[in-house]
């Protein structure tokens, strides 16, 4: 795992990215743009929610998938997230 890669976890009803010692360091919120390791490589995705405990991510092609505990994720710099976010569907 690279330094900027974090594991997805679920704590107190919310998805979080955890640090090296297993503590939550970032709470994922609807609208966040992150990179998520899916099908063997990292893809930019938008975090979304809807319905009863309905947290999911949206890929560039509009595909929606549920998060899984243990997925690898990367936080993006604000500038990167803003640029990539323009290309991702809102939900």
Descriptive overview:
This protein is mainly beta and 91 residues long. It has one domain: Thrombin, subunit H. It is built from 1 helix and 8 strands; from the N terminus they run E-E-E-E-E-E-E-E-H. Strands 3-2-1-8-4-5-6-7 form an 8-stranded antiparallel β-sheet, with helices on one face. Strand 4 (33-38) and strand 5 (41-49) form a beta hairpin. The longest helix has 8 residues, at 78-85. The radius of gyration is 12 Å and the shape is globular. The mean pLDDT is 84.
What structural keywords apply?
mainly beta, 91 residues, globular, Thrombin, subunit H
Order of the strands making up the biggest sheet: 3-2-1-8-4-5-6-7
- Rg calculated over all Cα atoms: 12 Å
Helix share of residues? under 10%
Compute the number of structural domains: 1
N-C termini distance? 29 Å
Approximately how much beta-strand content do the residues carry? over 45%
CATH-defined topology: Thrombin, subunit H
Report the major sheet.
8 strands, antiparallel
Structural class: mainly beta
CATH architectural name? Beta Barrel
H and E order: EEEEEEEEH
CATH class: Mainly Beta
Extract low-pLDDT stretches: none
Overall shape: globular
User: Mean pLDDT score, rounded?
Assistant: 84
> What's the number of extended β-strand segments?
8
Number of helices: 1
């Amino acid at each position: 795992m690279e330094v900027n890669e974090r594991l997805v976890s679920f704590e107190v009803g919310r998805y979080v990215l955890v640090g090296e010692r297993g503590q939550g360091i970032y709470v994922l919120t609807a609208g966040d743009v992150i990179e998520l390791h899916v099908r063997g490589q990292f893809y930019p995705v938008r975090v979304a929610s809807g319905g009863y405990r309905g947290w999911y991510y949206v890929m560039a092609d509009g595909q929606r998938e549920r998060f899984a505990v243990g997925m690898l994720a990367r936080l993006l710099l604000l500038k990167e997230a803003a640029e990539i976010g323009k290309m991702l569907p809102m939900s």
